[in-house]
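Lab notebook, bench 4. Still working through the backlog of constructs that have no structural model yet. Next entry is a single chain of 684 residues. Request: give me the structure tokens for it.
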Amino acid sequence: MKTPLTWLREFVSFDASIDELAAKLTMAGIEVEEIQGKGDRAIFTLGITPNRPDCLSVLGVAREVAAVGGKLKKAKTRVPSGKGRMKDFIAVQVENETRCPRYTARIIKGVRIAPSPPWLVQRLEACGIRSVNNVVDATNYVMLERGQPLHAFDLRDLREQTLRIQTSSSSLTFQTLDGVSRKLEREDLLICDGKGPVALAGIMGGKNSEIHAETFDLLLESAYFEPAGIRRSSRRLGLSTESSYRFERGVDPNAVLETLHRLTQLITELAGGTPTEDWLDLYRKKILPAKISLSFEEVRRVLGMTITSAECVKLLQRLQFRKENQTAKQVTFEIPTFRQDLSRPIDLIEEIARIYGYGHIPETLPRVALSSVSRPEHEQPTRHIRTMLTTLGFSEAVLMAFISPEEHQRFTLKGYTPLLLTNPLSPEDSCMRTSLLPGLLRVMRLNKNHQQTDGRFFSMGRVYHREEGKKESHEPLHLAGLMMGRRSPRAWETSRVNIDFFDLKGVLEQLFEKLHCQNIVFDRKDIPSFFHPGISASITVQGTPIGYVGRLHPSVIQASGLEEEIFAFELNVQLLLKASHFSRQFLPLSRFPFVDRDFSIVIGENVTHEDIEHLIREMKIPIFQSIHLFDFYRGKNIPSGKKSVAYSLRYASHDRTLTDEEVTKAHQMIVQKLQTSFKAELRT
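Model written out:
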């Protein structure tokens, strides 16, 4: 942003030389990138960061100059008197207050369009803006002076004496002032008259209401538009203007009316005319200044230096912050709405630091030596598993590696011989563990004895066994977990629901998904004796067994000194990680809508959900995305040996919007395949 020094002196006085002032501004965060000219003809080129839209004006820069050593002059704005009332000429309505929280307007009648005076042309050209005519130049001049974008409409071009601020009701084409016809979407905010749009709000006016040599009456606009909406429209249309550049960063909503008065004053001086005696100010939900409390001790701690309370207050007051109240320990400031980048105490500490001067803060070495700890690469996957399980609500238990012979008998697998200790500490700890579950059951029993009947525990460690007829022993790394009690914590608004098999199965499915394990199969075959035969499953990957999940057998639970239903799993971690894929591939989300279709079928009890999902995926229908089982039923109206299942299938494409015909065709193919393969009956 270019700022002439002569213009700056109208708002602030300072004694520093040009080079000294440039250095002070740069150290305070307003970088002076270039100085053109000398003396009073000097022009600063400033690099304004996106979080400081308040400095996109001469007045905003003047505030910064005052903060680093100048004296701010009060901006004088005269409210011109007039005659006639706004309601006699136009009706204005804001239909989207979220996108336009404040809208002000005033009419000037009888202006004379002419070239601008030399002083105005020179100032605009110094800032890189081309002169057009006295009215348009006045809007640009006040925008550069105050930071508030403005617009002037030819009042005669506003049809039906109506003005509405609204989003587009449909896609349409609109010609902007630059002569380009642009396609607008529903989310674009428009200024419309009684027949259609006359301006793209906050970005550019329309060709149909521009100021020209025959313009006689004006409607002046000064407004506050939601920054995010202006940013989206500007980027989508590829149209960036001086107005949109300021609006999308945020202007001061409480300076809108004063800026309108300043524009009215300047236009009547340059082009004559008579303004209305009143003006319009639609501002229903006022945006109030933020209030931030700051601890003096926190300032000293963060900055690492001794600074007095009085000095902190003085520095912040130099930034035009108003002190509300102060105690020995803290102070509360009201932050003006032109500083929308400040919302937290740490923001005020940063303001103190930059105005105090970073170069004046004493250098101190860190008091604590920092050291990095690198872990072996092979530990990373297991740490990842631990993190995932704790995220899912499990607590890790670190277990002894010894169990009793009785525990070994209860949890042994066929063909495994225990490793006995030669000199055990006690009979209860005389075997090397062949499973992690006995140790976890001890933890569960201990918790129950302390009235903790709900629990989720896991452990990771090695188990030890020798295969029958062989001398060498094996020490595979296992992962095991237990769940018992309530599904969710006690609460007054919910009844008790206990954990079941599908809760634990869901935990494992999330774990497998995070590890990118593919071809996981839950099967009812080869269930160990310590699991309930009807509520358990073995887990295989590409035909290789890696573990088990299910409800522990009642006899095992009773022998462990417990009574409640306990659900458990145990996995071979080495086989699990072998089937995992840590290099990930990502697909972009489809930009096109998806379609969900449901169906309900009656099938035999021997057909599993996995069979159905596998069959559908094997069909490799390009638009098929996912399958979700949402209902399961046995009972009335369902024949013996049968069950009813209901599914929701999702269809989508990455390159087009699907037609109803192709979705219906794909859906019917799937249903027909289920009917022929599983003798399924479609329910209606």
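Notes after review: The longest strand covers residues 531-541. Residues 13 and 71 are 5 Å apart (CA to CA). Flag for follow-up if needed.
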